[in-house]
Design a protein that fits this description.
About 45% of the residues lie in helices and about 10% in strands. By secondary structure, it is α/β, with parallel strands linked by helices. The protein is globular, with a radius of gyration of 21 Å. Bound molecules: iron/sulfur cluster. The site of iron/sulfur cluster has 10 residues, from loops.
Length: about 375
């Protein structure tokens, strides 16, 4: 394949043109399109808007479990038998403290996630208190909240309290939605995003790839998010969790395909923050770092009910590939902090083991 086709994808994307359906299909499935050339073209677009910078996000469950919805991919769904630790909403101080820790670890955005169908008025009131406490302490940092459906009035109140972004993923296409959830619809999701936009909030909305969708579904979501002008787009890769309605065998994802999906999202959403989100370590394996050529953002420290790799490994990967992070703290300094924390944990464990052995000499 000569270079002109890849150059053309980048040129059209940068020129504000929406790629046609046939081109989108080719990006996802034409094996004669070389993945390195596709990544190179997507990187041209990424570089134009974000240079070498990687935005780091940290997610925290402000509450876990007890959800009456049945999203088939979620360990907190009423339909899931996954063995998770369930707990109610954390205290205001705990949420504030987790925000402080996230920013100290280099996060440019801290995301608080609440389970459940939607934000009741009492939750909105609670959120307003926490948001204004975090914003008072960190006026220049971004805060994102994921709290299910939000009404027009609720979105306005959250915006006034200092919220920067509202997360509400489309997850999959309208056509595929009934296969992944029966307790709410794609239109319900879209309405919350429209409410957020109308309130002047930035929107974080993405998809989960690997839930039995076809290529047209993926293209549809990428286009919907383009039409919505979503500022932030997490591309999650299904993390199979034992006990969830979606079976652990179901995803069928390969590194090559995932990279193509990320390129497609970049071409269709050139100036959006594209995040290689949940499941990057598991599904991309040795190709993980390549995701940073189309994507300019990732999660540090794992994903709600699924573990990620260590922070040190992720930060080191960013550094090794020649990228920087969006933070006032230098990447080397952050790596040093992680290492000293790890040393403290290791030394603490060694000291504990030594004490146990002294008390019980039979332990080896
Ligand atoms: S994704 Fe949200 S709404 Fe759906 S089951 Fe999980 S916690 Fe509930």
């Amino acid at each position: 394949m000569d270079r002109s086709l890849y150059v053309e994808f980048a040129r059209r994307s940068l020129g504000g043109e929406e790629l046609d359906g046939a081109s989108c299909q080719r990006i996802l499935s034409d094996a004669s399109l070389d993945i390195l050339s596709l990544l190179d073209a997507a990187y041209e677009v990424r570089k134009t808007y974000f240079g070498q910078e990687v935005r780091v996000h940290i997610l925290n469950n402000a509450q876990n479990g007890h959800c009456q919805e049945d999203c088939h991919y979620c360990a907190q769904a009423k339909s899931s038998k996954a063995d998770i630790e369930e707990y109610g909403i954390k205290s205001d101080e705990e949420m504030l403290q987790e925000g402080r820790q996230a920013y100290a670890k280099g996060a440019s955005c801290y995301c608080m996630v609440f389970a459940g169908r939607g934000a009741s008025q009492s939750r909105i009131e609670r959120l307003k208190r926490v948001l204004s406490a975090i914003k008072t302490e960190f006026p220049d940092k971004e805060i994102c909240v994921s709290t299910g459906f939000v009404s027009n009035e609720g979105a306005v109140e959250l915006k006034k309290a200092g919220l920067d972004r509202l997360n509400h993923n489309l997850n999959t296409s309208e056509a595929h939605y009934p296969n992944i959830c029966t307790t709410h619809t794609f239109a319900d999701r879209l309405n919350t995003l429209l409410a957020a936009k109308a309130a002047g909030l930035r929107v974080c909305s993405g998809m989960i790839v690997g839930m039995g969708e076809n290529h047209a579904d993926i293209i549809d979501v990428a286009r919907r998010l383009r039409a919505l002008k979503a500022e932030s787009i997490p591309v999650n890769l299904l993390v199979p969790i034992e006990g969830n309605a979606l079976s652990p065998q179901e995803s069928g994802l390969t590194p090559d395909f995932i990279l193509r999906v990320l390129c497609l999202f970049r071409f269709l959403n050139p100036s959006s923050e594209i995040r290689v989100a949940a499941g990057r370590e598991m599904h991309l394996r040795s190709m993980e770092v390549m995701a940073l050529y189309p994507a300019n953002s990732l999660f540090l420290q794992g994903y709600l009910n699924a573990k990620g790799v260590s922070n040190t490994r992720t930060l080191q990967m960013i550094k090794d590939a020649g990228f920087s992070i969006k933070s006032e703290v230098d990447l080397d300094e952050l790596l040093g902090r992680q290492e000293s924390q790890q040393d403290a944990i290791t030394n603490g464990s060694k000291a504990l083991l030594k004490t146990i052995k002294e008390l019980r000499p039979s332990i080896q």
